[in-house]
Amino acid sequence: MQTSKSDWQSFFHGAHIVVDAVANADRLLQLKLGSRFNVFDFIRPDENTLSDLLRDLLDPLGTHGQGSTFLKLALEHFLQTPDDLTANALERCAVVREAPTADGRFIDLVLNFGSCGIGVENKPFAAEQKEQLADYADHLDRQFQGSFCLIFLHGPGMAPKSLSVVRRNSLKAQGRFVEIPYYANSGISLHDWLTRSAGAAMSEKVRFFLIDFAAYVAGRFPY
């Protein structure tokens, strides 16, 4: 069956209408929602900036004003919760940036609950230094007398190299070491926490910031 010239003209006319409709819908989304605008496209955060953002979001006294909401979600979904952590301890959590260790290193984030703590080593782009994670685990073990967890937050394709396989597996078995990707198609990830936090935020301003943050993570750190 041959297709006539008029059939082709009708097809392309219909396709043109569809394309115009999609373009108009996209323009409307941009006008009403700023769908293509994301502040992270302009600031292009480095590792330190990302750690600063995480510190504020995890801090119950952070500028977001949402109390311990984001910290609670983090503990529920991907940070390991020490056995002696109580609901009251959430509000007293001190989140420290560049927490110094006895050997002169600095842990990106330490969540200090008093008798227990969580260290977060943020590695979105670069690999660790020699013995870095091993030294952090030693320091946290001493500081919190064994009631600790070390989180390795990492970009795509990055695996912890400064902690021996034997010790890594031992700490994992005890719930003392956890690897968390920035983004994953399923399971725990920084992106998942940001998305959950956006849904829990009572402030519209904070919610849209978290939505942008999550979109940045999904685009910058593909699985």
Helix/sheet category: alpha/beta
Low-pLDDT runs: none
- Biggest sheet: strand arrangement: 1-2-3-4-5
Total of helices: 9
- Order of SSEs: HHHHHEEEHEHEHH
> Roughly how much helix do the residues carry, as a percent range?
40-55%
Estimated radius of gyration: 23 Å
Largest sheet: 5 strands, mixed
Distance between the termini: 47 Å
Per DSSP E runs of 2 or more residues, the count of β-strands stands at 5
Secondary structure layout plus pairing:
Elements: H1 5-33, H2 40-43, H3 47-58, H4 69-77, H5 87-91, E1 94-100, E2 106-112, E3 117-123, H6 132-143, E4 148-154, H7 165-173, E5 177-181, H8 190-200, H9 204-220
Parallel strand pairs: 3-4, 4-5
Antiparallel strand pairs: 1-2, 2-3
Helix pairs in contact: 4-8, 8-9
Could you explain how this protein is built, in words?
Helix content is 48%, strand content 15%. The protein has 223 residues and is α/β, with parallel strands linked by helices. Strands 1-2-3-4-5 form a five-stranded mixed β-sheet. Strand 3, helix 6 (132-143) and strand 4 form a beta-alpha-beta unit. Helix 4 crosses helix 8 and helix 8 (190-200) packs antiparallel against helix 9 (204-220).
